[in-house]
What does this fold into?
Amino acid sequence: MSAGEVLAHDTVMQEFAFLGHGIGLRPPHYAEVVADRPAVDWFEVITENFMVAGGNPRRVLRRVRESYPVVLHGVSLSLGSVDPLDEQYLKNLSGLAEETEPAWISDHLCWSSYGGHTGHDLWPLPLTEEALDHVARRVQAVQERLGRRILIENVSSYLEYAHSSMPEWEFLSALTERSDCGLLLDVNNIFVSAHNHGFDPASFLAGVPADRVKQIHLAGHRDEGTHLLDTHDHPVCAGVWSLYREAIRRFGRVSTLLERDDDIPPLSQVMAESRQAATIMAEVTNADAEPGAAHG
Amino acid sequence: MGERRAPLALADLQATLYDLITAPEGATTRWAELGRGPSELESIVKPGARLSALERVEIYADMYFYRIRDVLQDEYKRLVAIVGSDAFHNLVTDYLIACRPSNASLREAGARLPAFLTKHPLAERHPPAPDLARLERLHLDLYDGPDTDTLTLDEVRALPPDAISALHLQAIPSHAVVQSGFTLSASWHALGAGEAQAPIGATPETLLVWRQGLEVNHRPVDVDEEPLLSMVRTGARLDQLCERLIESVPEERATERAFQIVGRWLADGLIAAHG
It folds into this structure.
């Protein structure tokens, strides 16, 4: 797709502004971020970590929000579960969003609860019409409740269902149409799932609607020999960088977030990886590569 | 190849997988317990060249258990120090059978562990364990408990004498008073540093646990302070605290002692600011 085509498609969902290159805000970096206000365009936080009454997490979030755009990224909406939507969770999310005024809210295409119990994981859904109908209705319900569109992220998976009837990119495309949501494309998750299930990651990129892709995730994974595991404990590997370059060619300038959740290195190291993403985007789109320039 | 079956409806599929993933003995054992052969799962989960259908589900089963165990291990460091890693691992296995996580936040997954531990055989081998776990949990709960502005000693000193005796004192919400059958406070820091041999005395103590700024602290409560703490939980005037103190200290010393106690509370940030 040409840059002109990207612009034409971008008339849809204009509420998702290009934020530049962000970093997942994690506890080991709280003090440094609050004290030094590093040159990062924006921060993404794990929603559930801030659904607390007070104390340091909420204080940090307020301080960070004073200086940066913030995105709320959830892991527990359990959009694919057959359990009812968690009303208390939605109430808490709505309250946190009201206070934080995030640039947007995102969660995953998965189920993570059953029978009133939660697994604290992102379990993949069967890619069927039944699941699509179910998730689309729930995404719509969440969006109505929050009064805004949300972004849905593709997960890394280690199993495929025998009765899945469509590829994941087709499922996601249909989901965006039926529920009018956007996509958070996790390039590392595409890489991991493509390896684990033997599909071409380029097909994934080609198969999702460009005008719906409003955020990209980058992260590291671990090679377990029999499969790749999405661990967020390593730097982004060459293959994922290469796939990111392809994604930018196809989707243009999309807000990009570097995630690190385990073996978390110093902030400067995470920022260096984020700058690498900015450089790639600049090379592909001929734009300014300086993180921190988008939001001072 | 697995036996050909009609595809499971979404609800049935989730019921089956949830059962396998959260089974304490693992997905493979659970599937066998259900009287199903390994290849039967292939009607639900595709096998691959490198992993069978069961091995794929087992990846999720491992992640379910180890993710929660690792979080609990971090939250209950001192408990791990006294019972040991292996016993803690088995405790978490038992705990997850009895208390499956039901809160969206992973941070809440271990909330019921102290109560569960009181009825667990591990408590017989390590009697201080339940109290220690309860104190560790309190530290975690108060860490991100409600925020409250606090009254300072200087603000109270600036009041006229009449206003001081009528001063309404209410403790901040982020505090708790707990009784323990053991002297936890003495070995808290050593256990936190992973010193498994740090002795825990068997002398009962009452502890005040509270958050001051961003730090959660605890300290033993003086005998005459304890009833006063329960009064300021709901709110009490300074003169009421003095009256209560007369029951435990000579009348001529009650006011001085009340000022000592309240002064310490104010210095510790335990008293909420007014309006």
Q: What stands out?
A: Chain B touches chain A through 49 residues (CB under 8 Å). The mean pLDDT of chain B is 94.
